[in-house]
DNA sequence: ACGATGACGTTAT
DNA sequence: TATAACGCCATCG
């Protein structure tokens, strides 16, 4: 299949943009969906390069623990990300972690 | 082209 | 269960 393999960034943005509201995905999940289960770091790097006026719901992407990566705090509105997640109806526990087993995005429906 | 960085993940202690 | 170290891939200088 002649897949228009665009840059890794574009793939991450496209995939994250397909995450429906009320659900979240981990960097590893995104990387895995891209066919590179070990490129979780690259995925996070791609989101880090996202502009402030991006339409990509990057705030729905969390780490494998289900929480906002502390490294984002200070560089980007990481604190805002958590508030945004709660705003979407996500339930965070006292540890500030989401219940991935319940909110984890299954990925795009194979069409 | 090379070396260092980074919004991660997994395994071991 | 929490903390620590290593490995992974892609991008930037």
Description:
With 111 residues, this protein is mainly alpha-helical. The chain has 5 helices and 2 strands; from the N terminus they run H-E-H-H-E-H-H. Strands 1-2 form a two-stranded parallel ribbon. The mean pLDDT is 86.
Secondary-structure blueprint:
Blueprint: H1 8-17, E1 25-26, H2 27-33, H3 40-48, E2 61-62, H4 78-87, H5 100-103
The protein binds a DNA duplex (13 and 13 nucleotides) through residues 7-9, 26-28, 31, 36-50, 58, 61-64, 68-73, 75-76, 78, 81.
Short description:
By secondary structure, this protein is mainly α.
Strand order of the largest sheet: 1-2
Task: Report the helical percentage.
Answer: 25-40%
Total number of beta strands: 2
Gyration radius, to the nearest Å?
Answer: 13 Å
Q: Separation of termini?
A: 14 Å
Order of helices and strands: HEHHEHH
Large-scale geometry = globular
**Major sheet characteristics:** 2 strands, parallel
Structural class assignment: mainly alpha
Quote the average pLDDT: 86
Q: Which tags fit this structure?
A:
111 residues; two-stranded parallel ribbon; 5 helices; 2 strands; globular; DNA-binding
């Amino acid at each position: 299949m002649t897949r228009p393999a665009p840059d890794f960034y574009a793939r991450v943005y496209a995939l994250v943009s397909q995450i429906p509201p009320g659900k979240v995905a981990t960097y590893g999940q995104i990387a895995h969906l891209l066919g590179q289960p070990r490129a979780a770091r690259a995925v996070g790097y791609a989101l880090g390069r996202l502009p402030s006026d991006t339409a990509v719901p990057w705030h729905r992407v969390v780490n494998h623990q289900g929480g906002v990566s502390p490294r984002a705090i200070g560089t980007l509105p990481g604190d805002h990300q958590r508030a945004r997640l709660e705003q979407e109806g996500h339930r965070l526990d006292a540890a500030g972690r989401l219940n991935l087993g319940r909110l984890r995005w299954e990925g795009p429906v194979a069409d």
